[in-house]
Amino acid sequence: MILLTGGAGYIGSHIAVVLLDAGLDVVAVDNLSNSNSASLERIRAICGRSVIFRHADIRNEEAIYQILRAHDVTAVIHLAGLKAVGESTAQPITYYDNNVVGTMRLVSAMTRASVKTLVFSSSATVYGTPAYLPLDEKHPVAPINPYGRTKYFIEEILKDLHESDKDWRIAILRYFNPVGAHESGLIGEDPLDVPNNLLPIVAQVAIGRRPKVHVWGNDYDTPDGTGIRDFIHVVDLASGHLSALSQLRQPGLLTVNLGTGSGSSVMDVIQTFKEVSGRPVPYVIDQRRVGDVATCYADPTLAKNLLGWTSTRSLTQMCADHWHFQMKNPNGYRGA
Ligand SMILES: NC(=O)c1ccc[n+]([C@@H]2O[C@H](COP(=O)([O-])OP(=O)(O)OC[C@H]3O[C@@H](n4cnc5c(N)ncnc54)[C@H](O)[C@@H]3O)[C@@H](O)[C@H]2O)c1
Ligand SMILES: O=c1ccn([C@@H]2O[C@H](COP(=O)(O)OP(=O)(O)O[C@H]3O[C@H](CO)[C@@H](O)[C@H](O)[C@H]3O)[C@@H](O)[C@H]2O)c(=O)[nH]1
After folding, report:
1. Which Gene3D superfamilies is this protein grouped with (predicted)?
2. What is the pTM of this model?
3. Domain membership of residue 83 as a residue range
4. pLDDT at 336
5. In this structure, is residue 177 part of a structural domain?
6. Which of 67, 144, 194, 304 is the most exposed place for a label (fewest CB within 10 A)?
7. What is the DSSP letter of 269?
8. What residues does 55 pair with on adjacent strands?
9. Domain of 36: which CATH number?
10. Could you tell me if the CB of 106 is within 6 A of ligand 1?
11. 3-state class (DSSP) for residue 61
């Protein structure tokens, strides 16, 4: 049995599908602070079987301990956390409590239950401003906001934990920019508030929920002047977790990028989305967003060599699947 924290969320729901499809059993823990339990019903519709759901907060060590014991959990995939960069600057203590303290309570419960296999969701945001590209795992880490620092501190805590007890099997996965949705259009990204990330904004503009995309700067040192990111299909990202679990059959700690290795600009995304949706995507050029870097993409070689994992889905596929979910669920999971 795999415990999936944050299992009702965007990435967690896609990982649940990949795990169930691989024949594994899943217990999902989520406090639903940024998700809707409707996603869990949709998982059942896709896979023909369910995840077990426990409504709990990862900071509740006793509750997590009881869940680990009751379900004979052998490994944990840990996604639960807060992820909005701007909010983390306004509410740093909330972020440190939820993400860092939450992870400490979780690993304490795991230690008590003798469950010592952990896959952790980190982020390319730990690299901060790139000193060189593509970003490999040896690139220095220097996050530039509290959210990024929670990920960095958790990585360091997990390294200390592994140093202290070599029985632990830990995979730290640094995600680049997850986008898209399951091909069924049943699960996808459903931001509860105004989205910050590019793809959900573009999708809401294409469907008419917002008038236009604000392109944050077209004066970067990139071919079209707009920011470049390594967008990765969420289903490819999810399958990377299955590969990491297989690799953790031996004790050890690994830190691996999950990205495609190629970058697309904001204008590439807008153009591709326009093509796959057949809808206009009006945009306006605006000031640069504070804290943004010009270009960020992964060196995915280690994931290939160590995990035998590579991404396979194109930007067109990412936009098409994102659009499919948006069309099927114009108001997200609300009303589902
Ligand atoms: N989406 C991205 O761009 C991105 C990039 C890099 C890393 N990540 C990381 O991946 C993970 C999942 O991200 P996502 O995009 O699916 O976000 P999400 O908000 O959709 O999912 C996170 C889930 O965790 C739950 N949660 C939050 N705090 C909790 C707590 N204390 N106890 C129990 N549940 C809690 C939320 O309700 C939500 O369902 C996060 O750790 C995030 O930092 C995301
Ligand atoms: O309305 C918008 C939103 C974004 N952008 C641009 O689009 C690009 C991508 O932005 P966004 O989707 O917000 O992603 P990032 O800023 O790269 O950050 C994401 O990707 C990181 C990993 O690389 C994660 O750590 C962060 O949590 C996650 O928000 C950037 O150039 C932005 O300036 C716009 O032009 N207009």
Report:
1. NAD(P)-binding Rossmann-like Domain (3.40.50.720), UDP-galactose 4-epimerase, domain 1 (3.90.25.10)
2. 0.97
3. 2-181+231-259
4. 52
5. yes
6. 194
7. H
8. 30
9. 3.40.50.720
10. no
11. helix
Report how far apart the first and last C-alpha atoms of the chain are (Å, whole number): 28
Reported as a single tens digit per residue, the pLDDT across 30-86 is 999 999 999 999 999 999 999 999 999 999 999 999 999 999 999 999 999 999 888
CA distances from 256 to 42, 48, 82, 116, 300 (A): 30, 32, 21, 19, 8
Structure tokens given for 316: 């067109």
Tally of structural domains, the chain? 1
Residue 181 contacts by C-beta under 8 Å, 6 or more apart in sequence?
14, 187, 188, 189, 234, 321, 322, 324, 325
Residue nearest atom 36 of ligand 1, based on CA coordinates: 34
> What is the model's pLDDT at position 45?
96
Q: Please report whether residue 118 resides in a domain.
A: yes
- Ligand 2, atom 29, residue with closest C-alpha: 197
Instruction: Report the pLDDT averaged over residues 278-306.
Output: 95
Phi, psi (deg, nearest 5) at residue 95:
-70, -45
The structure tokens listed for 176 are: 């680049």
pLDDT at position 334? 78
- The reply to whether ligand 1 has any atom less than 6 angstroms from the CB of 81 is yes
Q: Is residue 72 part of a domain?
A: yes
Q: From CA 248, how far away is CA 5, in angstroms rounded?
A: 18
Question: Is 273 within a domain?
Answer: no
- Give pLDDT, residue 47: 97
Q: How much is the pLDDT for 49?
A: 95
- Pocket lining: 10 vs ligand 1, CB cutoff 6 Å: yes
* HSE of 220, CA atoms in CB hemisphere, 13 A: 25
Residues with CB under 6 A from ligand 2: 83, 85, 123-125, 176-177, 196-198, 201, 213-216, 227, 229, 266, 289, 292, 296
